[in-house]
Every structure is written in structure tokens, then in C-alpha cells.
Write a structure and sequence with these properties.
Tachylectin-2, Chain A; 23 strands; 4-stranded antiparallel beta sheet; mainly beta
């Protein structure tokens, strides 16, 4: 009898504990990625890492992006970082860069599309970003058109601003990052006067660009590249500001080109399902390699509330196609992807 009472009270305690654990977050563990929806971090806040980039170190993914806040201090801009081991559940690491406008001639400045590279030789994390804004006396909202660099000893910062410059002297707006299978790091940057975008190999310490590998003569921004089965796929969006447009891709056997013509990655009337490219993430599992298209669904009037469209793409044999967005899950160990709803086949 005593034993029975003892067990009941234990069971009750266990049940209470389990429900508390459930309420405190374990039950909220995400088992899917829902393109276009609010994406709560470990604290329940929508992830604030727009125009982002991702690197993987050991078994952890680091997602850096624009952290948009209501401008309490109009001089500062911010970059956030989130970490994950499964690409679905993200833990906020807070603000990793707080930066004041880097130049006295800048007004109403913007810090966009931050991308972080880890340099094995120097053991430093090097952040590239698009720095832009008005120039005193000249106006214009995207006239400065430079690349900024910030550095940290740690993946989660704090990062210290180092310099702004124009790569090889060129005007630079949207930037992207590409790390090839051999570890070589490249900066992608849009160059309006040249009507195209560059693929620039970084210097040994990543503190500069060293080789202008290719200027792809196609006026695209939001540039991203992946190396899939020995073929390079480059994607980008047309130059329509915050308004979505049909993103396109081309392929080449060498980064130097020649590149094929650019083709749509999705039905053009969907305007890339209302999104704009920021990265192609390659997840190499022990069963399969999955390439994920990472994009922003911008809300111009409330950029911090913009949503993310992440979807695995159909890729291979020179073709890349973004399927209709729907919830999906990934096993980063195997590389396997599951869709929660069946592919919608159009007749
Ligand atoms: C499109 C770019 O891709 C964004 O990063 C941002 O710069 C907007 N233009 C601003 O209009």
C-alpha cells in the first residue's frame, strides 16, 4: 500500500515535470522549416538575420544577417548571429556587430547582406558587408557603394570594424559569399557600371580581394554560387530594389567561365515565390548532398519582419529548379530531406 502511494506521487511528479518541460520549450522544438512563416528562435522571437550568410564549423551552423531595429540611435547598424545543429532550431547569439557609420561623408547609411568567413590560418572570423548610403552634399540613397570588413576572434563576436573599400576599385553593392569544396573563399559583388557581378577570390588572410576571377556580364544582385558535382551554379535576382522578380541561374565548369545564359529558377510569374536570393547552402550528408536556396521575402516598410524562404532545390546535370514552397525537414547527418505535403503537380 505504501509502495503504491509512493509510486502514484512519483508518477504525478514526473507528469508535472514533463508538462513543465513541454511548456518551457522542448515541446516547441521544430521538426520542419516553414518557408514564408514567422520563424521563432529559442526565445520565441522571429529570427532577425536578413540578407544572411551561413558557415558551418564542426557540427554547428552559424547564421549571420542584418539585425533590424527601430532606430533608437540613427548612427548605428547591427549584425546578428544564430547557431543551430539541425538548420531548423536556431539559438540567438545576440548582436555580434554594432557599428557606427564608418565614414563622415555617409548619411542615412545601410549595412546589408553581412557574410562571415572563417580563416584557418589566422584563426579569425572576417565579416564582409555592403555599406551604402547618401553622401553629404550629393544625396542619393545608394551612392557610397562600398564593401566593409569587420573581424573577430570568435564566431559569435564581438566583431570590430576595420575598413571600407571598393574591390579592385569597382562600385560594389549586394555582396554574396562562396566557399568552394577546396576551401577557397570568394566574395561575390554587384557592379552596376559594369552591368554585372564579380567573383573575387579573397587574399590569404581574407582581409582583401586578391583576384578578380570573373565578371559575369549579367545585371544581377543577391548573387550566390554552389559547386555541385563539379559544376558551378550561379544565381541572382534582377535589380528591382525590394520588389521580388524572377531569379535566374547559369552554370560553368570553371568560375572563370564561360557561363551559360541565365534561366529562371522558378515559374517567372511567381517572382521566385516573392523572394530574393541570398545564399546557396550545400549540406553534405552521408547519404546525399542537398542544396538549399536561401532567400528573403522582404517587407520594405518593416524590414525586420521580413520572412525567409528556404527550400531544397532540384539540381543536377546543369539544371536548377526551386520547387513550390511548402514545409520540409532535413536530417543534416544524412542530407535527407522530407516534404510535409506532397509535391503539387501542375497539369
Ligand atoms: C535589393 C538588394 O538586394 C537589397 O539587399 C537591398 O539593397 C535593396 N535592393 C534595397 O532596395
Amino acid at each position: 500500500m505504501i509502495k503504491f502511494t509512493f509510486s502514484i506521487s512519483h508518477i504525478a511528479k514526473v507528469l508535472i515535470l514533463l508538462s513543465l518541460i513541454g511548456l518551457s520549450g522542448y515541446a516547441q522544438k521544430k521538426t520542419s522549416i516553414k518557408p514564408g512563416e514567422l520563424w521563432p528562435d529559442n526565445n520565441g522571437n522571429h529570427i532577425n538575420a536578413h540578407g544572411g550568410g551561413i558557415i558551418k564549423l564542426k557540427d554547428t551552423y552559424y547564421w549571420y544577417g542584418e539585425e533590424h531595429r527601430k532606430l533608437k540611435d540613427p548612427h548605428y547598424r547591427y549584425v546578428s548571429c544564430y547557431t543551430s545543429k539541425d538548420l531548423m532550431n536556431w539559438t540567438s547569439q545576440g548582436t555580434v556587430l554594432s557599428m557606427k557609420e564608418p565614414d563622415t561623408i555617409l548619411r542615412n547609411w545601410v549595412l546589408e547582406r553581412p557574410k562571415v568567413f572563417y580563416n584557418k590560418k589566422t584563426n579569425k572570423f572576417v565579416m564582409y558587408m555592403h555599406v551604402d548610403g547618401e553622401i553629404v552634399g550629393q544625396g542619393g540613397d545608394y551612392l557610397y557603394a562600398q564593401v566593409g570588413i569587420a573581424v573577430s576572434d570568435h564566431a559569435t563576436g564581438p566583431f570590430t570594424f576595420i575598413k571600407c573599400f571598393r574591390p579592385f576599385g569597382h562600385i560594389s553593392r549586394d555582396i554574396g559569399q562562396f566557399i568552394d569544396d577546396d576551401g577557397t573563399a570568394y566574395l561575390i559583388f554587384e557592379d552596376r557600371p559594369s552591368k554585372g557581378f564579380h567573383i573575387a577570390r579573397l587574399s590569404g588572410d581574407y582581409m582583401n580581394v586578391e583576384e578578380d576571377v570573373c565578371l559575369i556580364k549579367s545585371p544581377l544582385e543577391g548573387g550566390a554560387i554552389v559547386n555541385y558535382q563539379g559544376l558551378y551554379y550561379a544565381i541572382g535576382s534582377a535589380l528591382t530594389g525590394w520588389v521580388p522578380n524572377p531569379n535566374k541561374y547559369a552554370t560553368a565548369t570553371s568560375l572563370k567561365g564561360p557561363w551559360t545564359e541565365f534561366k529562371d529558377i522558378a515559374p517567372p510569374e511567381t517572382n521566385t515565390y516573392n523572394s530574393q536570393s541570398t545564399l546557396l547552402l550545400k549540406v553534405i550528408g552521408d547519404k546525399q548532398t542537398t542544396v538549399v536556396f536561401l532567400a528573403d521575402q522582404w517587407k520594405k516598410e518593416a524590414v525586420g519582419d521580413s520572412r525567409y524562404l528556404w527550400m531544397p532545390v532540384h539540381i543536377g546535370d546543369g539544371r536548377l529548379w526551386l520547387p513550390e514552397p511548402r514545409p520540409w525537414s532535413i536530417n543534416v547527418r544524412t542530407g535527407d530531406v522530407k516534404f510535409l505535403k506532397k509535391d503539387i503537380v501542375k497539369k
